[in-house]
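Readers of this paper often ask what the protein records in our data store actually look like. An entry from our holdings is shown next, in its original layout:
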Amino acid sequence: MFDVLYLTFSAVTWAIVGYKARAWFRDRGNVDLGLTALMTSGVPIVFLFSAPSVYRAFDRLTGVANLAMVFLYSAVVLFASGATVLLLRWTSRGDEAAHARAAMRSRYAVGAVAVTWTVAIVCFAVGRPDAVEHPRDFSTAYAHAPGVVAFLVLYLAIFGTSLAGLGYLCPRYAAQLGRSWLAKGLRTLAAGCWLGLVYCACKLAGFVLTWAGHDVYWLSNGIAPMTASVAALLVLLGFSLPAVGPRAAAWRRLRRLDPLWQEVTAHAPEVTIPGSRWTSRWPLADLEWRANRQMAEIRDIQRGVRRHVEPAALDIARRKAGDAALDDRRTAAVVEAAALRRGLANQVTGHVAAPHADSVVMTVSADPAEEHEHLARVADVFHDPMVDAVLDELREITAARRP
């Protein structure tokens, strides 16, 4: 079971790391992105060596019992080192002097971690009392071996310090970013860091209690690893959300906008530009560009049919929305949908309204994300019965005016 679980986690996290690495390859001047890709690469390595079969196979290959644990914890230290440098960069924004101080502090921090971890590995090398494999209970099995205890304490000190720093700073930065995907990513990252500190506490308590003669295998070798697994997934998710979130939102907008876009551009195919109608083999390519392009083309068509829309169309739609006690956002969507459908229908027959509506585009915000969401609501209600009722009433009024 543990093999399947950890190897699955490893595969998932390798995919996330590959996504971050791909983003860095496209923007190699972004030092923070490159550092993030490097430090997060330690997480799938941790999951890989956490699988008991991989752990034992690696030790058989090297001929050194429990050497896989050193590689596993070294991957964690890689993450901790990257996190430390990232923290120093985040807290040293400013002029060139601030950047220079950050670079110097980063070198000192990495040097300190390297020396500390070297000492820890030496303690591991001289402190193992036997050659028995312990992929699941390493910390409790060697609770009475001073060298291994020193190895574990130094590891937890390095890891816990970096987690505490990230967990403290991330919410502070998120509070300055409003409701952005970056803010959500930072808060998710902070949650992963605090959960990681729970893992450190469980590990520390586990081998201290074992050393004191109390068997708490379930704490150090049961709860702690699973806590660390969830924490690692949260950390990677936090690093990925700023990039994945906008694309996921764009994909949702595309799915909601596409029926409306297909319908209205069928009336005016000349407004679409080459590449608007998706032909790529990869369905997730250029999601934000495609969503923005669809919105722009729908808006172009809306403005093009304005002279075919009677002001009464907007008035009737507002009245019916008010009678139905719709909120402002739903009302704006119904009004815009009714105006667009009326304009397209009149355009087909060649009818030009006199006078025509001043506007059939209901701008709800200067925020592009909110405008996208509004137009998606227009797509949702485009064939709503209330919009049908507006058009029916307009047709009755038009028929009554004919001689």
Notes: Residues 217-267 form the longest helix (51 residues). DSSP finds 15 helices and no strands in the chain.
